[in-house]
Amino acid sequence: MELRANAELTFESGALIILILGPALPINGAGAEGGGRLDAESLSAALLELEDEINWDAEAMLDRAVRLERQARLLGNELLATRARLSQANLRMRAGDVAGAAQRIWKVHQWAVDNGARQLTARTHLVWSNIHRHLGDPAQCLEHAVLSVELLDETATDHMRVWHRVKLADALAFSHSIDAARYRFEQAERLAIEYGRQDLRLAVLNNFAYAEYAAGNHEQAERVAQRLQRHAAEHGFELDASLLDTIGLIEIGRGRYAEAEHTLEVCIERHLAGREDDADALPEYLLTLTRAQRGLGAYDRAQASLDACRSLCVERELADVLVRVHQEQAELHAARGEFARAYEVHKLFFTAFTNLHSRQREAQARTRQALFETAEARQEAERFREQARRDPLTGLRNRRYLDEQLPGLIDTDPGLVVAIIDLDHFKRINDQLSHDVGDQVLVQVAKLLETELAAVSKEAFVARLGGEEFVMVMPGRSVAQAAAEFDGIRRAVRRYDWGTLTRGLPVTISIGVAGLAETDSDNLLSLADRNLYAAKHAGRDRVVHRGARAAAA
């Protein structure tokens, strides 16, 4: 069995960082999503391949993710469509469009949070962590990696339980917290063993080995790499090119250049025989081979390997790898004693390095701007969303908010009680004093209702239905208990000093109360409204609920 794993290559202080992102599945454009229509279960399974089994060919997979989103929209399934959009953001990032990924991640995250899609939220934070790693921001990279693990629950796949911890370990290593990273790598490995995911265990060991190597712990890195090789042999995995490159780097770090040269030769042979064709993969392997050959003193072979690497970099416009080609060329001239040539090439390296970092800073700035603009748009959308659910006169929640919230509360709280409130003789205030005074009375009544309700229940809320009508929603109460508390609010309105505002006209309210304990969900508001009508006809300024009446006082 051959493990195909995707290597993400990043230039950082002249080092090659390899992050294995998961075993590949064949992506050939065929299947139902290419032309036929998938049902929800099949579509979810197809998306899971993109989410848990990341492939080398980001462009082909991006096209597949777009097709899957179209299928989800045909089904009217927003969860599946949003999962497809997250895969698109992830694949854009992997294809180098980090700013494009950043622009898309906010909406996916907001939908996931708003709809309680915990697994999707966890996956979103994992992609976000990688975006911040590209930005060179270890603090934010780590913060999102932590959240991606904290959100794991019973809905998480085995792959997520293992891989989110690996990425947390990677983030810790990126933050130079190698002891904490080591603990998370070991935890991920134990889970991979528990779940019988030997392929994931191999990927865990690869990242673990590289983290130790990047931290300068070459002896520890070699021990982990040896475990990786034993594990592959025991379970019939053929080490692919990306894994062999990691092993070769560690052998170079240990000064075993002959072994490293052999490892990299096998690495390149397997790369050429495989179907992977990441543009920078072969140049990276050739560059590592050059380092091994230079360490071995085989300068002619090293120069040949480096020349082949340089040609590919120029042909494929790989500026970041080409910078390290210049650096390696200077090292090779120096090893041969050609110090004048080494100095000239080093100047070329320094210029290329400076230009590369300038381009990287520009790319990071574009990504940060995309994040900022998207955050601004999100905040603006949230502000408008909040405004649309507020009554402009009183500042209370409005009917739209009530219609959105009440069904969920009815479904989850059998002790829910509602009250409909109406101002008594409000027309008289408008007619005798003016509509402006009437508005001022409505505003003050709204403040009293909100303040008094908050004093008896932090979970309750009040909304304006329109005109002089309000509704109060009280969770977790018996109808009688809620009616008594509503009656206290009625009394507070009556006792308020209205003299200055209304010139002696009284302001009172009538309240009709109903609870789920006494009626079904479809009739809850209707029963409260009928009880309000009874309160009006019984003389106003009172609370009425089924089976009992609170007299005015």
From TrEMBL:
Residues 414-548 form the GGDEF domain. This is Diguanylate cyclase (GGDEF) domain-containing protein. CDD domains: GGDEF. GO terms for cellular component: plasma membrane. SUPFAM superfamilies: Nucleotide cyclase, TPR-like. One of its GO terms (molecular function) is diguanylate cyclase activity. GO terms for biological process: cell adhesion involved in single-species biofilm formation; negative regulation of bacterial-type flagellum-dependent cell motility. It comes from Paractinoplanes atraurantiacus.
